[in-house]
Amino acid sequence: MTTERPKSTTPKSLGGLLPFLRPYSGRIGLAILFLVLAALATLAFPLALRSLIDGGLVQSDKGMQVMALREHFAALFGVSVALGLFSAGRFYMVSWLGERITADLRNAVYGHVLNQSPQFFESTQTGEVLSRLTVDTTLVQTVVGSSLSMGLRNAVMGIGALAMLIWTNPYVMTQVLGVLVLIVLPSLWFGRRVRKLSRASQDRVADSSAIAAEVLNAIPVVQSYTAEARESVRFDASTDSAFKTAVRRTKARSVLVAFIIIATSGALLWGLYQGTQAVMAGRITAGHLGQTVVYVIILAGAFAVLGEVYGDLLRAAGATERLMELLHGESHIKSPAQALALPPTVTGSAVRFEAVNFHYPSRPATPALSDFTLDVKPGETVALVGPSGAGKSTVFQLLLRFYDPQAAVNSEPGGIFLDGVAINSIALHDLRQRVGIVPQDAVIFSTSALENIRYGKPGATDAEVHAAAKAAFADGFINALPEGYNTFLGERGVRLSGGQKQRVSIARAMLKNPPLLLLDEATSALDAESERMVQAALESAMQGRTTLVIAHRLATVQKADRIIVLDHAKIVEQGTHAELVARGGVYARLAALQFTD
After folding, report:
1. Do the strands 369-376 and 351-358 form a parallel or antiparallel pair, or are they unpaired?
2. Residue 472: is its pLDDT beyond 70?
3. pTM of the model
């Protein structure tokens, strides 16, 4: 992506999850309550142990000792039951929150990406978006559903254990606390390297996903050029780079964890040694020492877990940051705040381009359209012809408002109007509902033939779908499929031929029944017989609606009401087929090339 990334990642980046946490504040409150209660139950265990040692084992009377032991063991069992119940409640609540918040985050990011303009996809690889939706959201789920809870629980336990140790052994633990501060400072400094490597590791994984998505979507081309070995090497190099970065991150994190555990254990063992000296001197009881030992173990364990959790938090912070980049990215094309309504149509929509200038953001020095002016009347069929790169497809992209035109030098941006209303004043949904398009490369979804056609009108009945398929001469081959209209067509329609895909795409557009129809080389993938059938169907579909046709094969546009010839981003000729041939210009030369043996 071209989005500028922060130089370092900190756990503060997790603040981007707050909007997703707020709706579940009640469950979060319950999770925190269970968490605190479980931590308190753990902290109560050493107190019960001290009572057992001092009150149950020191009794001289055997009968009293047995009774005392029973009471103390009952108390210890009660603490264990409370710890088990509170831990189960905490585990359920945080696991539910992790699953729910991850699903909400994934839905929000995916929905936001779907509303981005094509300019976004010029600079963002699909594989990277998929990596963020899968790998990064999984990291967030791990933190919200596990690591964060463990971190909070151990923080409460560690603070509680430290407080009890200071209260029972103030002089010794003050020394230990001072040593712990000296441990924390280098740990924070060393953690910066772990943060940077965590972000770098996630970026390398996204690079691998991008390569895989690109190659798998073009597998016929890859295999036809016998490039399987080359692509395997390229993917291997990418995954190896990700592996090496992950190893560096793991090494750095391992050193950090080892330092924290060793240094913390050393400091606490020093405190424990001082405690044993106090027992030998008679300043504290054996039970007091046992309590101290357990609190030391709790504190050491808490610090060890917090070291691990901190690493998880850093990785999740990087993942959250990457997801927030997608979620907060603004689309260049938006519906206006105060959208205007489109008037009803009877004989198709009117289209007008006024002095439109446009260049693609990725090619700022090359004009795609220059001072383009065109007026299409309702019900008129207009063909756009010209050499590749002349600007024909750009007309469709601007009409659908995938992009907005730019201003020429020292002038206002050109205008595009649909039924007399500027399209940048119309809600995107309303604008695109008025338009049906049959692209050159037919898009087939991984579902049945019935649902592929119904994509043009989600509420259509089966009868309406069948009627559209018959009009597009698709009914015959669909019924010949193993399960007819319910046949699964495979990813990208691999079970259909190119011509069959195109007829499904045409049926989809006809089912939508829009007042404006855009045909982008709609018959380019058909054989001669199918082309004649589909051409007849399209001519029937054009009745009562405005149609814009892009065609390189001039035989498909001879019956158009008007032919617009583009060259080098400008209109150079327009008229009927006969008029343009007689004129002897660009169109006549193109016609001579195609119609002369």
Report:
1. antiparallel
2. yes
3. 0.67
